[in-house]
Amino acid sequence: MGTFYLSTPIYYVNALPHIGHSYTTIVADAIARYRRLSGDKVFFLTGTDEHGQNILQTAEEKGISAQEQADDVVSHYYELWRDLGISHDDFVRTTEPRHHAGVADIVARIDAADDFYVGKHEGWYCPSCETFYTEKELGADKTCPDHGRPTEWKSEENIFFRLSKYQEPLLDWYRSSPGPVQPATRSNEVMRFVESGLRDLSVSRAGLPWGVPFPGHEGQTVYVWLDALTNYLSALGLGGAAGEAGLLEEYWLSGAGPRVHLVGKDILRFHAVYWPAFLLSAGLPLPTTVWAHGWWLRDQRKVSKSVGNIVQLEPLIDRFGSDPVRYFLLRDMVFGQDASFSDEAFVDRFNSDLANDLGNTVSRLVKLSRTAYDGKTPPEACGDNPIKSAAEEAVKGYREAMDGFAFHKALSHLWRLLSEVNQYLVAREPWKSIGAGNTDSSVSRVLWNGLEGVRIVATGLLPVMPQVAQEVLAAVGTTDVPSDLSALEWGRTPLSVPLPESPQLFPRVDKKVFFSTEPDSAAVAKQQKNVGEEEMTDEITIDKFFETQLKVGTVTAAAAIPKAKKLLKIAVDLGEDEDRQLVAGVAEHYDPEDLVGKQIVVVANLKPVKLMGVESRGMMLAGSADGRPILIHPDSAVPPGTPVK
Ligand code: ME8
What we know:
There is one protein chain. It is globular, with a radius of gyration of 28 Å. The strands form 7 sheets. A 6-stranded parallel beta sheet has the order 3-2-1-11-12-7, sandwiched between helices. Strands 16, 17, 18, 19, 22 and 25 form a 6-stranded antiparallel beta sheet that branches. It has 22 helices and 25 strands. Ligand ME8 binds at residues 9-12, 20-21, 23-24, 49, 228-229, 231, 263-264, 266-267, 295-296, 302-304.
């Protein structure tokens, strides 16, 4: 059994948590749960960053103390993490004495390495990110390149850290294998930044009363990032009494297991440049991985308090429970890239993946099995069959994806298995036999295979939807919650055990009702009302229109279909894991080679059909001029999968 250390950033307490903070923490939780199920001994750390000018200012504006401000916001974090089922092992606050001890320890180590000196610090300072910028880094009117807010000129005597000394050691670290900074594109950015030359870093502030006093330098406070980054070790016991340092040795100093920092790309520089440089200076081991994920966007901009476009998850959690929210966030963002949040996207995902694919499959199988076998699971299992091989393939893909933090992919492997189960049931039609009173061994095997497929999907869902996964397992006859991933092996659905009546796991959401009652979605509701007021016979509501998912795709291959004069078989990249295969009646007007590389608009949620024996999973849009198809292309190139609205 190996150890696995995992941290989220510690979040500022000047504002309440939003989708971004929840996202990183949910990702970390899914990893922690997955590693525990894989047999690792996990230390999963989160917490709050409570010092600095920003927090002091927020508190002053409210007429309360900085500590009161911190206590208030922390209580919201505690509550939200509980509601989201976050299974952290520790929660560190930078105002805790144990953290102060850790900061004192790292400062002493860096000092002993002679890496501090006193100097004059001047520059353009953004209080929101507590960072100095050079003139050329600033936006228009000397605004912060990240927050877009005005910066202020500061000039003061500070303590400096010899960051420049660590340029080469850092570059060696980035180049070491496997790359410690992930994903690779971010690693390249960091390397370019470091290669362009590192300036020494001011690591103290003069006259800032809310922070850790800089040991040996009266009037100076430890720079909030040196303070904050040290949380990763102070929580393990750095600077604590020797007897308390067991965790530090086990998870960090021994260098035995992975040490992973999960961060948003906004704070990569602090984690991939400053933090490892501090550690190198302090003579402490480096993290094994710094993983920077992308941003949740709303209206094309990063969700953040300073932009003023925050999304809070509480209303969705209240309405749907935390697991569907966790599922959505992990499924809809390609880990590492940006993703846009909208209520519509959430409801669509809920209806299609959870209500339809998962919920309906469970209830269909449970109903059939209960009817055929007197309220029990089937009496006979099945050894070799198409669902078994589909399950083995799905599990392999799932594990590889989870090991590589590709959560969207891991989930799509599980959903492919669900779809195989459904296709299998449709092909075998067990309901016909059951309706005719036949419940022989072939029916038993078909239903058992289906239940077993769902059991494996639910087992894979344990890290992502811990509660729902247990409910699904119980619904398909497995009441003992698996304690490790050996439960992903084929063959464990018990025979002839009582099967409770299937609960309705995910009641389908009527979008019309949802958007007309949810306060968050006032704009959409208003739009619908306007449409409704002028309703005419052949008009549809916007809601109806949005039932059709239109996406831009890039054609990657096209070929004629033998014996089908009018049809072409076309592969389209829709930004999904695999290209989609479409069959289109355009062969008389387009040559296959003319289509490859073109961008087209595809109806992405059409039920699959077979045309001349070839499966078509979608339809491409074309104008129809006297029966001649004219393909529709976007005005300029867009990423595959871009929605059309
Ligand atoms: O930066 N999309 O705290 P913070 C995705 N205290 N993730 C987002 C996000 C978004 N739109 N917005 C925020 C700090 N996050 C420091 C960290 S660590 C030693 C100190 C997530 O409250 C993401 O993980 O501003 C990002 O890095 C973090 O919240 C920033 O949280």
